[in-house]
Specification:
By secondary structure, the protein is mainly beta. The protein has one domain: Beta Barrel (Thrombin, subunit H), CATH 2.40.10. 9% of the residues lie in helices and 43% in strands. The protein contains 1 helix and 8 strands. Strands 1, 2, 3, 4, 5, 6, 7 and 8 form an 8-stranded antiparallel beta sheet that branches. A hairpin with a 5-residue loop joins strand 2 and strand 3. The longest helix has 11 residues. The termini are far apart.
């Protein structure tokens, strides 16, 4: 029996993967936990073998630059083109995790977040 929800396999990319579309995309942040979260983004840039830089923007919470390991990535076709659904894992208790957790607490519920590539 096949599962109802199929997850993309865990993977690490050897080269940066960038969308050919505009680097701005409004997407949702899902499944925030003590060690990571799931985001739907249009553009991201690999920093080194395991860490990726993300630039998060939201009108009510300002902007934030963080790094986390992308542990799951899947291309998702949409009306505006292909986007990436990525799972981001932070080291528990790390400064990046605490910054993201506090930043997300400042967001009202159901708000969209712009995610841009950061360096």
């Amino acid at each position: 029996m096949r599962p109802i929800v199929q997850r993309a396999p865990r993977m690490r990319f050897k080269k940066p993967i960038q969308s050919a579309l505009d680097h701005e995309y409004v997407g949702g942040v899902h499944n925030i936990s003590r060690s990571g979260c799931m985001m739907r983004i249009k553009h991201w840039v690999k920093v080194n073998r395991e860490l990726h830089a993300l630039h998060l923007l939201a009108p009510m919470a300002g902007e934030l630059h963080v790094q986390g390991e992308v542990v799951r990535a899947k291309m998702v076709p949409g009306e505006e083109g292909t986007i990436y659904e990525i799972g981001i894992r932070f080291e528990e208790g790390s400064e990046d995790y605490l910054r993201v957790a506090n930043w997300l607490k400042a967001l009202p519920q159901e708000i969209d977040v712009q995610v841009k590539a950061g360096r």
